[in-house]
Amino acid sequence: MITKRIPKIALLLLLTLSFSCSKTEENVPLTTPTAEITVDKLVRKASLRNQEIPFRIINEAGLDVTDSATFYVDGEPIEGSVFSSSTIGEFEVYGVYLEDGVEVTTNTETFNVIIPKRKVVIEDYTGAWCGFCPRVAGAITDLHEISDDVTVVAIHETAVSFPDPMHFDQVQLLKDIFGVEGFPAARINRSNNWPMPHPISDITSIAGLDTNLSIALNSELTGNELLVQVNVVYEEGSVQGDKLVVYLVENGIIYGQVNYYNEDTTSPFFNMGDPIPDFEHNEVLRKSLSSLLGDAIPSTAALNEYVTSFTINLPSEYVTDNLDIVAMVVDSNNEAKNSQYAHIEEDKPYQ
């Protein structure tokens, strides 16, 4: 029998998607996506322990030949086209099928089985006019250098004396809900205060710990229209009252920042000017794609995915190369349980 290997045939991990559409609260109109986001090779790059992982093969003619194929995971054949594992780690899979009497072997793809890790949410209530606010930005910069398990949102408010073009229109509503009265104010997982001097250990002590739910992000930009897809999976099923919050943030915005630490020799902002003329503002909250406090997550069985999507027409003043998506699952009290972030057009798997 002739055997051939065709590397152009992609072995796909099939994900059955059930899209829903959300609207914001007085923020930006969203429309139902006309097409789902597809990924050329692995549709799901990571899965949770014991979660079913379906495989699929589409041949060069565009035909689904999954049912006639034998799949091999780490070199061993499996029954059918669905795999699961209670063991975490990286796996390899390929498929073999007959086409016109010729045995075809697909390319090999890798995927991971994981225990979800917690990404801590930090929200920085700030303003370009706020002279003490650079200290929180400095603490966040230090935190980024030692941990990837942190999701940051900088929420700006303007002032008559020093206008802030990064002002978020619904900042007052967030301040009222989360008890923010003075700036700077930093919140951990939405609800808990990150007190001065904003010790890094407050975050690193909980960041990256094992948890029971995970979030994946993917997005596509066509012209100025951004389509965002969010996948959520729970190990033990969704919890009543949980909500999904999805924000658009922008990095690398250069704008003056009032600096009360200009004469403080112990500060990283010493002698940088007051105001600092070319301060770089990052993770600036631009738009809420979900409702501001989140959209209800419907009842979802253990290890099944909840998938939703959003579209937004990006304003011309946004620098698309600097845009990120932030998603968080919060409970009925608005406390964040886990989060994820990704650059636009990045396929960020469960982690």
TrEMBL record:
It comes from Winogradskyella luteola. The keyword Signal applies. This is Omp28-related outer membrane protein. Keywords: Signal. The keyword Signal applies. Residues 1-23 form the signal peptide.
